Write a sequence for this structure.
């Protein structure tokens, strides 16, 4: 009965604003202790019509709501829950709508209801879950394919997740006791501390009352969690010789490979890619290879990489463009290639992520002990979450340890302290105590490096490749996949950045670093000298921090005032200005800001000089077996590292380097930041990547046009390829032949006779002429929109037109919309622009793609400076840099159409801005888009020609 009176509750509404939107569905399950008292479900008739989006999300139609009771008839049923603990997923939402109704009837002495967020509860139960939405839990636990988005049904599903989570976790005795210890830290107002204490029999009692086979669900979940690697019956007969002849022999063995990979087909372009990668590695030269869609690019470079590593006893690095591709490689492509070559017992492949993506348990334990009693719920929750995270990591194998990239974004959003703690615990390789750390066996960073040292193939990403850990030699032979992203990734890697948040964190945490240093001095030096040094450090640190605080506190208001003077200031987005150079600072406000920054730079340098002599005083080996001193040393090094970073950054900003683009940025949500990026990013890539490496192979489906005779010079620059001497590069980039017959299998039209993108009628007027194509095909359509507003307008339009006639799938409405789209014979899929990169829908399920504009290039200061630089140093920036970037991005989206040799279809791009393009620009655009044959016409004619194409 410690549960008291409680209810699992969910509502559906017409929108997210409790001031203007209305409840349209209410459902709950009411309990006293473990006894189910009431099941409740009711639609609610709103005063206004619901949107098509809400109708699609919930399945609730306007017709259903016409017969529903008004809220005044439902409210009394809700108020029966007065004084209950109300359990909801993301309970802030339910509380914002429902609390006002309880407030109306609340009596002074009656028990008050409390809203309890199951999202936080499940985050503690499953710290390894990156997604905390209800649908993710339902799918991952095998309870349902999707969330219902109905009041009662979601309440029921949430209770099932809670029951199954607690029941399943009780099968792990050690974890059960750890959870009990963690939940005891919370005050009694955190209702879930009682729920987690329920015995298996009590959980079964609740489950039986809602007709839930809890034991069966637990067995099913155990099978999912086991996830044993399937044994393959494939018997590889391929030789492991690293030679051109053997590569050709393997890839031409079509029937033999099909025993393992039934969809495999021999492709000449894949063979050329594999041979070129092998030649580059063998001869220690660099390569730039365009491998069009359908080449089989990943296997094309994995086979020569594995055989080279096996033969030459040298590791290879595969750097992918995104985390998704990294995961796909390690979970799918690598195992398949290892099985194909029968190399699982001879080649070790590991996934490696950068140091800053790991979390330091040593720092956490030090801070956790210092905190002692925790003072509020957020502190207790955040510390408990990371405590459970590190407990998980202590038990998990390396590949399942939790890293920063897996931390739930929603927790960072709703709990500011969570994001602050994450930054504090981020591993800094300069502050890592390495092998002497008492927690080294649990450390995802150190253990990852250890495994990487023993690996033949390392799977990483661009960011890791460009910020390689110092304690591990970077492989000298590298494949850079998705190489068209290299400028963006290199900019992020080499940018010097300081934000309002990082400076505040430095000022807040530096006293802790001072305290750690003082502890070390006091415990390791003679008493008299130690007292003098301690007093000097404390006095100078406190004095400089007070001065630094004065200048830093002044900056937010001053910088905000400066930006709000801009004629096109946007409160919702990031705004930028060139960093104020001394000779250009004319107005009083800019002069004051620069003076504060200069003073802050001087103070940071002073603090840096105070601590610098102590950085070489000790080494981690000096503290072997002395855990407290080792922790103190780690805390000191971490804080010194942050201080050094900020001191060097401010010095860089104020140095006014001509070959860097240095800017100030401001947004009302994030405050200000200072950023400086190299203008000649290609030279940085050359210096940092190509020069130290024996062979780097850059590959992508979209480097330039199909022949490589237009648009490639910009890629050669951004990859550093143009800086190579002749003996270190192939005479020209290798542009493999297109696998598919683009001219006959795809019809691509560009129309400029639409309304402007900013016109409120753009979506409606354009789709009016596009829908006849959708009608003719009966779906089989992907529509991509480059702004949230146009996307939402299109969703509303298409749902009104097709809901109930054709299945309509919308990005964001469900975890697996692409897979659900592929299951339908004919359907419509709507997404944002970035949604069009990476999805794979082969066959006739997708035959028509609509794109609402040619992608743009960011028009920020660093990009403009690069355009000017390229024009001055290399040639035509418009063709080779600006327009080439836009066409590469467009080709990524067009690449979704043809995924197999038998695919065919049409693509319609609309962009009224192209009306102003001159003839030479249009011809250059068409040339850059080869092998696609871009036809220019008006929208109505394009629609008819597409319909005619499908009628043939």
């Amino acid at each position: 009965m410690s549960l008291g009176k409680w209810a699992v509750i969910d509502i559906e509404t017409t929108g997210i604003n409790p001031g203007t939107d209305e409840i349209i569905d209410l459902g709950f399950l009411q309990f006293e202790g473990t006894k189910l008292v009431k099941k409740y479900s009711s639609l609610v008739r709103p005063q206004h019509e619901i949107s098509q989006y809400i109708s699609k999300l919930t399945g609730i139609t306007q017709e259903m709501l016409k017969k529903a009771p008004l809220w005044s008839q439902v409210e009394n049923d809700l108020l029966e829950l007065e004084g209950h603990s109300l359990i909801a997923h993301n309970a802030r939402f339910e509380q914002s709508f429902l609390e006002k109704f309880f407030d109306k009837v609340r009596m002074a002495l009656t028990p008050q209801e409390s809203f309890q967020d199951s999202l936080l509860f499940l985050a503690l139960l499953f710290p390894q879950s990156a997604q905390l939405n209800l649908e993710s839990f339902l799918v991952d636990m095998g309870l349902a394919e999707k969330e219902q988005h109905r009041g009662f049904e979601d309440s029921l599903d949430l209770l099932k997740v809670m029951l199954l989570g607690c029941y399943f976790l009780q099968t792990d005795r050690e974890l059960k006791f750890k959870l009990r210890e963690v939940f005891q830290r919370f005050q009694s107002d955190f209702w879930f501390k009682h729920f987690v204490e329920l015995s298996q029999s009590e959980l079964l009692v609740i489950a039986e009352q809602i007709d839930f086979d809890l034991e069966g669900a637990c067995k099913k979940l155990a099978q999912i969690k086991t996830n044993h690697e399937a044994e393959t019956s494939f018997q590889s007969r391929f030789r492991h010789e690293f030679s051109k002849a053997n590569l050709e022999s393997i890839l031409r063995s079509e029937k033999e490979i099909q025993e393992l990979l039934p969809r495999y087909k021999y492709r000449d372009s894949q063979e050329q890619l594999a041979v070129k990668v092998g030649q580059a590695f063998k001869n220690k030269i660099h390569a730039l290879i365009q491998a069009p869609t359908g080449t089989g690019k990943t296997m094309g470079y994995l086979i020569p990489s594995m055989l080279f590593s096996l033969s030459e006893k040298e590791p290879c690095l595969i750097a992918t463009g995104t985390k998704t591709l990294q995961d796909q490689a390690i979970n799918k492509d690598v195992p398949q290639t290892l099985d194909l070559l029968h190399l699982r017992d001879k080649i070790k492949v590991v996934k490696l992520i950068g140091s800053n993506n790991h979390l330091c348990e040593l720092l956490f334990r030090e801070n956790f002990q210092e905190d002692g009693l925790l003072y509020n719920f957020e502190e207790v929750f955040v510390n408990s979450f990371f405590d459970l995270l590190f407990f998980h990591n202590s038990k998990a194998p390396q590949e399942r340890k939790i890293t920063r990239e897996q931390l739930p974004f929603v927790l960072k959003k709703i709990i500011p302290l969570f994001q602050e703690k994450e930054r504090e615990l981020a591993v800094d390789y300069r502050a890592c105590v390495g092998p002497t750390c008492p927690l080294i066996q649990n450390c995802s960073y150190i253990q990852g490096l250890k495994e990487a040292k023993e690996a033949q193939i390392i799977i990483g990403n661009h960011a890791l490749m460009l910020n390689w850990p110092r304690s591990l030699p970077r492989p000298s032979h590298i494949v850079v996949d998705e190489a068209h992203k290299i400028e963006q990734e290199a900019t992020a890697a080499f940018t010097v950045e300081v934000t309002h948040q990082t400076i505040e964190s430095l000022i807040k945490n530096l006293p802790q670093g001072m305290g750690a240093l003082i502890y070390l001095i006091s415990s390791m030096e003679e008493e008299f000298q130690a007292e003098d040094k301690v007093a000097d450090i404390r006095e100078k640190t406190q004095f400089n921090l007070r001065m630094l605080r004065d200048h830093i506190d002044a900056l937010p208001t001053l910088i905000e005032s400066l930006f709000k003077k801009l004629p096109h200031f946007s409160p919702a987005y990031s705004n930028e200005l060139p960093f104020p150079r001394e000779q250009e600072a004319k107005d009083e406000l800019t002069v004051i800001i620069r003076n504060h920054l200069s003073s802050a730079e001087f103070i940071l340098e002073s603090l840096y000089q105070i601590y610098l002599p102590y950085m070489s005083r000790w080494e981690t080996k000096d503290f072997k077996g002395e855990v407290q001193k080792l922790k103190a040393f780690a805390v000191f090094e971490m804080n010194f590292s942050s201080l050094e970073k900020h001191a060097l950054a401010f010095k860089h900003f104020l140095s006014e380097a001509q070959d860097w683009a240095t800017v100030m940025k401001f947004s009302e949500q994030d405050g200000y930041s200072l950023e400086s990026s190299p203008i000649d990013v290609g030279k940085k890539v050359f210096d940092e990547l190509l020069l130290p490496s024996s062979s780097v192979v850059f590959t992508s489906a979209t480097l330039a046009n199909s022949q490589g005779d237009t648009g490639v010079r910009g890629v050669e620059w951004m990859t550093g390829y143009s800086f190579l001497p002749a003996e270190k590069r192939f005479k020209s980039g290798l542009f493999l032949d297109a696998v598919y017959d683009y001219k006959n299998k795809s019809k691509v039209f560009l129309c400029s006779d639409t309304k402007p993108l900013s016109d409120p009628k753009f979506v409606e007027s354009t789709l009016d002429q596009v829908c006849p194509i959708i009608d003719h095909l009966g779906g089989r359509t992907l529509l991509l929109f480059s702004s949230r507003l146009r996307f939402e307008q299109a969703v509303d339009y298409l749902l009104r037109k097709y809901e109930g006639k054709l299945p309509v799938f919308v990005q964001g409405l469900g975890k697996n919309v692409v897979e659900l789209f592929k299951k339908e014979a004919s359907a419509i899929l709507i997404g944002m622009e970035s949604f069009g990169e990476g999805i794979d829908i082969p066959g006739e399920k997708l035959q028509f793609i609509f794109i609402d504009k040619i992608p743009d290039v960011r028009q920020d200061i660093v990009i403009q400076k690069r355009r000017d630089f390229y024009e001055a140093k290399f040639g035509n920036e418009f063709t080779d840099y600006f327009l080439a970037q836009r066409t590469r991005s467009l080709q990524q989206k067009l690449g979704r159409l043809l995924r197999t040799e038998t695919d065919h279809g049409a693509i319609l791009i609309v962009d009224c801005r192209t009306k102003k393009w001159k003839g030479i620009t249009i011809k250059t655009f068409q040339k850059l888009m080869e092998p696609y044959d871009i036809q220019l016409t008006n929208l109505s004619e394009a629609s008819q020609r597409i319909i005619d194409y499908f009628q043939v």
Q: What stands out?
A: The radius of gyration is 30 Å.
